[in-house]
Amino acid sequence: MILGLKKNEVKIVPYDSEWKNEFMRACSEIKEHTNIQLDRIQHIGSTSIDGIQAKPIIDILMGVEDIDHISDSFLKAMKKASFYRLRVERPAEIVFAKFTDDTFEIKTHFVHLVNYQGEKWCDLLFFRDYLNANEEVKRQYEKLKLKFLNSNLQGVEEYTSYKEQFVQSVFDKRIALAGGE
Fold first, then answer.
1. Long-range contacts of residues 142-147, Cβ cutoff 8 Å, at least 24 apart
2. Helix (H) or strand (E) holding 25
3. What residue ranges define each of the domains in the chain, with the CATH number in brackets?
4. Helix, strand, coil: what percent of the chain each, to 5?
5. Fewer beta carbons under 10 A from the terminal one: N or C of the chain?
6. Residue 54 in 3-state DSSP?
7. Which pLDDT tens digit goes with each residue over 26-64?
8. What are the backbone angles phi and psi of residue 176, rounded to the nearest 5°?
9. Alpha carbon separation from 176 to 39, 105, 132, 139 (Å, rounded)
10. Measured between alpha carbons, how far is 57 from 134 in angstroms, rounded to an integer?
11. Would you tell me the crossing angle of helices 119-133 and 135-149 to the nearest 10 degrees?
């Protein structure tokens, strides 16, 4: 199984069914060190979408009651589970990463800590489920990611921006299906 990327590296690899098992291993490590309930730890991102090529990083969504009140003991517990808080600044989200070793050069996992059943939680799970249920949309997303690799763009920020319109269009479907709330 290919897993891990260097800082600002964008690489797409063939789908690997072992990614799901790696998520389960990480989930067990997190559960062992924190009091997060299993239903609040979800596999997201492209490695959770059956059959598509993806960046070899396991993305994990974790839901908490209040993202603005995370205790120091929780942060220490995540570190014991080998997940280190990153200096990434995102509204209503704390990001952690797991690395291959103590050089901290190659990230293998990300944890996106958000409010449980908040907007980000719902959007990210909907995206995963919608693509897994819609083969045509799944393939469009895969083609978009591969097209980025053939562009003159590079780096994680440009990669994320390149996909943003597509991702947002899927998020908008969740709102439309919920009756425009």
1. 142/52, 142/53, 145/12, 145/46, 145/53, 145/54, 146/12, 146/53
2. helix 18-33
3. 5-177 (3.30.460.10)
4. 45, 20, 35
5. C
6. strand
7. 999 999 999 899 999 999 999 999 999 999 999 999 999
8. -60, -45
9. 25, 41, 19, 22
10. 22
11. 100
Per the CB < 8 A criterion, the answer to whether 49 and 58 are in contact is: no
Distance CA 1, CA 14 (A): 10
Residue identified by tokens 């997940």 is: 83
Tell me, yes or no, if the pTM score tops 0.85. yes
Task: Give mean pLDDT, residues 112-125.
Answer: 97
Q: Is the dihedral of CA 30, 74, 41, 55 positive or negative?
A: negative
3-state secondary structure of 10: coil
DSSP symbols for 57-85: -EEEEEEES-TT---HHHHHHHHHTT-EE
